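Per your request, structure below.
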């Protein structure tokens, strides 16, 4: 399981993403300033200090469940969970039975099912497209809505939640 490495959206340190099955075909980080947000007064930076990550994993088995490993080069705060953007708007904590942090808080394991939980295309087609998610606290304010991010802005790495199928 070879990791795809990129920098957090703050550019401060690298993170790696890998899967126990399949290949991470694309990955992208998002800074909170890139999100299509309706401002309600609470800065996203305070709830999502490292920004968000979205990735696409291509598997050999449609409908399979994978374990995705997100590796950070420094410890995540102890009060941090894994938060994901909902395609309909808003934020939710990743289900605790589908996420775990290593004892040193540098690695997060996410359980994702092709066509099911954690796959925003909703189709068991051998391609898992994750919602934008990352270390943070839920619920995260402000509320937001999604509009397509043009593919020329993502360097082939993908789009944000609502249009992640083109990723």
């Amino acid at each position: 399981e070879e990791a795809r490495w990129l920098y957090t959206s703050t550019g401060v340190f690298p993170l790696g993403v890998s899967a126990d099955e399949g290949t991470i075909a694309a990955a992208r980080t998002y800074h909170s300033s890139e999100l299509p947000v309706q401002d309600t007064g609470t800065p996203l930076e305070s709830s999502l200090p490292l920004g968000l990550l979205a990735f696409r994993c291509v598997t050999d088995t449609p409908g399979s469940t994978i374990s995705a490993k997100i590796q950070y080069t420094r410890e995540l705060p102890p009060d941090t969970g894994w938060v994901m953007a909902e395609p309909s708007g808003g934020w939710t904590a990743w289900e605790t039975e589908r996420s775990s942090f290593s004892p040193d808080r540098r690695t997060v394991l996410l359980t994702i099912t092709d066509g099911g939980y954690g796959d925003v295309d909703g189709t068991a087609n051998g391609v898992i497209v994750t919602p934008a998610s990352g270390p943070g606290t839920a619920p995260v304010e402000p509320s937001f809505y999604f509009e397509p991010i043009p593919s020329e802005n993502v360097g082939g790495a993908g789009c944000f939640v609502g249009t992640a199928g083109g990723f």
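The longest strand covers residues 23-30.

Regards,
D.
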